[in-house]
Amino acid sequence: MLSLTIADREEAILPDPRDPLVQIWRDYKGEVCAYAYSLSDNYWLHVPNVASFRFGRKRTEIVAIPEPAVKYDKIQDIFSRVVLPIALHASGMEVLHASAVVTKAGLVAFCAMADTGKSTTAYALSQRGYTQWADDAVPFEPETDQVIAVPLPFGIRLDPDAKQYLDVNNSSSKRIFPENQRLRIAALIVLKRFTEEDQAEVTVNSLSPAQAFRSVLLHGHFFNLKTSDLMRQMVSNYMQLTSLVPVYEVRFRPGFERISLLLDRLELLFRELSGEST
Do the beta carbons of residue 103 and residue 130 sit within 8 Å? Predict the structure, then answer.
């Protein structure tokens, strides 16, 4: 796996935002959070006010050139949550922006837009006895007749309200190293919230491969889709993923008081995936 090296005496090569080949990333508020660009044989990811990260397609390390007075913990956090998944994509491995738990059928991963509740769902399932395997990133490799997930160390990130409701203690913030080295992905679940006007509590719909491809591709970690070879690779791998793995869209009404209804329906789906009678 790629390692992190701090090079605080190096000088970063900063991006030109006017360059059409520079990918500008924005958060859900529309604010710039990173720039992705290529120079010679190097890939760069510049995170303003944190560091510039340099990596290559065949290298085994990621070099961070920090901004002045940035603490190591901040760089390590951005490296783990953001840079490592993107560098893995640049090196040839796809990474889903997803949480995941281990079931009898195999690994089940949860994709969702920000603040939908994928981390909360995975952690709540862990309280029901399922092993949480990922919180934010699930690398995967398509094979001939299945898709294999590759583990990454992770930390559990929950908002304060979820922590309070789920009675999360401080130890949950420690980094977790999944025991299972590689697992077959049994299913992908795209979580979406109902609006308050909707009457249903929880619905589960199986998606066709075409529907699944369009839905799941939105949740892929990527370096720079203006790099044509990476874009072709990503499209091919996600087409394989969604043709080999069943994908479900699960809609639910938000609210901690309703979360047990969502978990009950997910557990029913897990049993169906493993072939258990209901």
Answer: yes
CA distance 8 to 1: 22
CB atoms within 10 A of CB 219: 20
Position 94, amino acid: E
Answer whether 105's CB lies under 8 Å from 69's CB. no
Say if residues 226 and 90 touch (Cβ distance below 8 Å): no
Task: Using CA atoms of 109, 80, 77, 163 in order, give the dihedral in degrees to the nearest 10.
Answer: 20
Show the tokens assigned to 124: 């709540």
For 167-199, the pLDDT digits (tens) are 887 544 567 777 767 899 999 999 999 877 667
What whole-number distance in Å separates Cα of residue 51 and Cα of residue 268?
45
Residue type, 265: R
User: Contact, 104 vs 116, CB < 8 A?
Assistant: no
What confidence tens digit (pLDDT) does each residue in 247-257 have?
A: 999 999 988 99
Neighbours of 101 (CB within 10 A): 23
Amino acid residing at 137? A
The H helix count followed by the E strand count for the chain is 7, 16
Cβ distance 84 to 159 under 8 Å? no
